[in-house]
Amino acid sequence: MELQDRVVVVTGGAKGIGLALVEAFLDAGARSVAVADLDTPHLAAAAERLDERATTHAVDVTEPGALERLVTDVESSSGPIDLFVSNAGIGSGAGLDASPEQWEQIWRVNVLAHVQAAQAVLPSMLARGEGYLLSTASAAGLLTQIGDLPYSVTKHAAVAVAELLAITYGDRGIKVSCLCPQGVRTDMIANDAGHSSIETVVSQGLLEPVDVARAVIAGLISEDFLILPHPEVAEYYRRRAEDPDRWLAGMRRLQARILGALGPLDPPTGP
User: Fold this and answer.
1) Is 169 labeled as catalytic in the residue annotation?
2) Strands of 174-179's sheet, edge to edge?
3) What is the spatial distance between Cα 8 and Cα 172, in angstroms, rounded to a whole number?
4) Superfamily for 7-262?
5) pLDDT of residue 259
6) Which residues of the chain have pLDDT under 50?
7) Structural domain boundaries of the chain?
8) Which residues neighbour 130 within 8 Å (Cβ) at sequence distance 6 or greater?
9) What predicted TM-score, i.e. pTM, was given to this entire model?
């Protein structure tokens, strides 16, 4: 997909990977980019930073009907949406001790928001016989995230949603890509002790958001399903499929290195 003269929507677009994607789409010639985010201070800062082709929308992707309203607003003001980027995502830093409330919140953001975005935007795309969906998942959705069970589960689910959309609608003109970066220098890394310690172990692989955005532009042009800003993830994914036991042993060794930095993980306190 070429971005020239396209109408684009990006959720979680006010900072980090999302903002880098917005800027890359504008640089590539997009006609309009809707920046949707719950973080109103960063949204205001983005509005000051971006040119007039960008519009900002205060959106909580977990609110019922929010994504449908966003799609309606964008289509009314800018025309049919060519590319919808489901980028909003959160971590938890929890394991078996994650509360029901944590599970509910991360499931709604990392999975259901992708489903609801597709429900909102696909009817018009299918009517035109063309459209593009890009989901931001994670290398954790292909591998795992040590120390964050809800994040790992929901990112695997996000990949599965993208796969099913590609299978179901690929012959009807709908393109689907799934972005699966490893470590990226964002607030999630800076503010989450578990994610931060892991990236300390693999710091040589830590990318900047702009690096991820460049990989996305290249992946959209070539219409790749998996967009892997860290090429080594493809090899890790292959090893996991070919010899799961060996891969799990390697992950336990990595976990031991991480625990050396974090200290022992607390055991779950509930059933």
Assistant:
1) no
2) 54-58, 32-37, 7-11, 83-86, 131-136, 174-179, 226-227
3) 20
4) NAD(P)-binding Rossmann-like Domain (3.40.50.720)
5) 80
6) 193-197, 200-201, 203, 265-271
7) 7-262
8) 82, 173, 174
9) 0.91
The structure tokens listed for 79 are: 């025309």
| pLDDT for the residue numbered 202 | 53
Distance separating alpha carbons of residues 160 and 270, to the nearest angstrom: 29
Q: Which helix (H) or strand (E) holds 49?
A: helix 40-49
Indicate the SS3 state at residue 33. Answer: strand
3-state secondary structure of 250: helix
SS3 readout for 68-125: HHHHHHHHHHHCCCCEEEECCCCCCCCCCCCCHHHHHHHHHHHHHHHHHHHHHHHHHH
**Cβ-contact 116, 124 below 8 angstroms:** no
Is 9 in contact with 78 (CB distance < 8 Å)?
no
Catalytic residue among 151, 169, 236, 237: 151
pLDDT of residue 150: 97
pLDDT of residue 117: 98
Q: b/e per residue, 114-137, with b = 16+ CB within 10 A?
A: bbbbbebbbeebeeeeebbbbbbb
Pairing of strands 83-86, 7-11: parallel
